[in-house]
Design brief:
Two copies of one chain form a homodimer.
Chain A (H helix, E strand, L loop, with lengths): L2 E6 L1 H4 L6 H12 L6 E5 L3 H14 L2 E5 L10 H9 L3 E3 L1 H13 L13 E3 L3 E2 L10 E5 L6 E6 L3 H20 L4 E9 L4 H7 L1 H10 L3 E6 L5 E9 L2 H19 L3 E4 L4 H11 L4 E5 L5 H8 L7 E7 L2 H8 L9 H14 L4 E7 L13 E8 L2 E8 L4 H23 L3
Parallel strand pairs in A: 1-2, 1-3, 3-8, 13-14, 13-15
Antiparallel strand pairs in A: 4-5, 6-7, 7-8, 9-11, 9-12, 10-11, 15-16, 16-17
Helix pairs in contact in A: 2-6, 3-4, 10-14
Chain lengths: 418, 418
């Protein structure tokens, strides 16, 4: 079973929006064991959409088209899909009623152009999930028994996702029924370069290649760390799970304690889980990150079990007045130690992390951009270190977040003797 | 002049990384007035890469390939490009020396597999910019005079960007020399839905269609607001600039004061500029956003001219102890007003924004997810409002950030009588 993804929208080609939909759909297809060999993005242009849809259908059993189902004049996916199917459009009174109901439910009047969204190619069926006002479509192509299929879903991510989860993926799984199970596990690491990891794992990769086992791949992901993905194929879930577990153990033995998490775990969730397990509360004192450590921690639902809050001391006076930083340079060991102690004291927390540095682009207090002091406080003992990142403002901030949280993670692990 | 973008990497298809490179390159091509009709992503697979490169070259004058230039075994872009060119690879001693120099400069030993990165297809030239250890390539295809060209650049964003800016885009501009100038201007708005904006602008779009003027397009962008893009084409920069200025004025007249910025301006930069212009300092008190308002503000270089800091009071005790929130529910008008006042007092700031609410997924204090109280304090006067967002945790946090900053923006504008 092969499925391609075609994203529609001139704004994608012009770089005014990043295509996160194809990526998300790719992940879901991989989980479902469905091969996806290509993603394509085309503009809102009838002729080029036609060519892209037809080419994708020639290479695949199924095609998922995102975007171009909105109410505005440049949204022409419905028309182009009808042309690919060789049929006309008809207005669906059930969808008309549903769209009208949604607008009146929010006390708003329906703009007339929204009615275009109720036009359906003859022979296609509307997808029952409809979180917005654009209905998705299941469009059989050619022979209806065993033939190919095109799914048209909106470009709005949460509308697209609801339709994929409710209708498209179950339908694809039914069609792919007899195929093998493919699963991946991602080991998340911090503290080693991509080429260094590849070097240390080269023998294992050669062994897997020779024996036809699972595959390994590497992916540098900024604030998300460096990922090692293990992918295995097998007859059923149990077989694949056993292969993944075995390979994970081998990789962990080879790379050592730089693995901080698995799959959807990230540095924040791992640190929060460890804090909760040890009954500790956390505070942060941030300067160059401006609140990013707190933002990342509170991205995790349930962060309130351990996270008390943050002092973002961007201004030097705030560092001195609220956190007790001594007079002198604010990018220094003395400053970051005082910030870590101040965070625990002011926010009544058991442990803390603190960062102060130069995000750039300009130097500050004679320190060059990328210079960062970091500290962790655990059981009243502060440890501090200086790092010089060779990166721009954005990456310097991201790497500061994961580096200081990893330092805390390691201290928490040794605290409970792990 | 037409140029396509092909992104290489199985991790893109599997959804383990979002392809931000194609989007960024698309934006740069549009600015350079070069048409881009398609983006493609393929996996690290020789046969499928070959097909994708050849198809893109058939449709275009130039192709930019990102990814697959790394040191690991699955990086085969060099080999596939050589096959498309019909030539072999040769190791470039200058690049070998350069890669070795970079490793020794960071005091690290070079893994042997990094040397593969010095292999260059015969007839191709290395791109002089080399921020990492992967050299980019300029590869002439077919007739070297007026023929087509393939650029291979790394998938690491900052390496790719340095090569595009230093070599690829100037080379493309030279080749496209005689073509028309295409420029866009983006008006950034907040406070109206996409279909509502389309409705109010429908007559103007019809007029532009009929008269063959510039085009208008809409784009909902979460925390970045809702964008209205004006695109114009003309013989030279002056002509296009005049058309864009004229159309911007028309659109502003039609949509009114919901336009908060233009092009690269965002809500944070606009608010910071206004604060600096009025000589005011800003502090934030954040609960459900966990520091995200501070993070966004400090994404802007030079934020320190106005931003003093933030109190992230995630825990109720912190709200009461540090910010003076009274006993009682913390998702309430009384709480958010105290937070806004507390932020100004504790951080010695002239103005502040404060937010407290339920990000979800679970209800809190009997309030359902999406319920948010927001406040702004200007000249000691606090204004508060309640919003109920029908979104998930992530979008609720994003919309909270832009909504409260827009409220502050409007108060600052009326403060100086604009």
């Amino acid at each position: 079973m092969r499925c391609e993804v075609v994203a529609v929208g001139t704004e994608l080609l012009l770089g005014q929006i990043v295509d996160t939909n194809s990526s998300w759909i790719g992940g879901q297809l991989a989980l479902a064991g469905i091969d996806c060999h290509r993603h394509t993005a085309v503009g809102d242009n009838r002729e080029r959409m036609l060519v892209a849809f037809r080419e994708a259908l020639e290479r695949s059993d199924a095609v998922i088209v995102t975007g171009g189902l909105g109410p505005t004049q440049d949204d022409i996916t419905r028309e182009v899909v009808a042309e690919v199917m060789g049929v006309g459009l008809e207005r669906d009174p059930g969808i008309v009623a549903e769209i009208e109901r949604r607008f009146s439910g929010r006390g708003r009047q329906m703009p007339a152009n929204n009615l275009r969204q109720a036009d359906v190619p003859v022979g296609a069926t509307a997808i029952p999930e409809m979180p917005g006002t654009a209905p998705g479509l299941v469009c059989p192509i050619g022979d209806p028994v065993g033939g190919r299929v095109l799914y048209a879903v909106p470009g709005v991510p949460w509308e697209m996702q609801a339709m994929l989860e409710g209708t498209v993926l179950p339908d694809l799984r039914r069609r792919a029924d007899s195929e093998a199970v493919i699963r991946s596990r991602v080991l998340r690491t911090w503290g080693r370069s991509e080429s260094g990891l590849a070097e240390v794992l080269a023998d294992e990769i050669d062994r897997l290649d020779a024996e036809g086992g699972p595959t390994l791949a590497f992916l540098a992901s900024g604030m998300e760390g460096l990922k090692v993905r293990i992918t295995a194929k097998g007859a059923d879930e149990d077989e694949v799970a056993a292969v993944l577990a075995d390979e994970e153990e081998r990789v962990r033995e080879i790379v050592g304690p730089i693995v901080f998490g698995v799959d959807d775990q990230n540095m924040e969730s791992v640190v929060l889980d460890e804090l909760v397990a040890q009954g500790l509360t956390l505070a942060t004192a941030e300067s160059l990150t401006g609140g990013m450590i707190g933002t990342r921690l509170t991205d995790v639902p349930g962060a309130s079990r351990a996270f008390r809050g943050a002092i973002v001391a961007y201004d030097g006076d705030v560092k001195r007045g609220l956190l007790g930083v001594p007079e002198g340079p604010v990018v220094s060991e003395a400053a970051v130690v005082a910030m870590a102690e101040g965070a625990c004291r002011v926010l009544c927390a058991d442990v803390s992390v603190a960062v102060t540095g130069v995000a750039g682009p300009d130097p500050q207090d004679g320190e060059k951009p990328g210079t960062v002091w970091m500290a962790t406080s655990v059981d009243g003992v502060v440890e501090a270190a200086k790092v010089e990142f060779p990166f721009d403002r954005s990456l310097t901030r991201q790497f500061t977040v994961i580096t200081v949280l990893d330092a805390l993670r390691r201290r928490l692990l040794s605290r409970r003797g792990a």
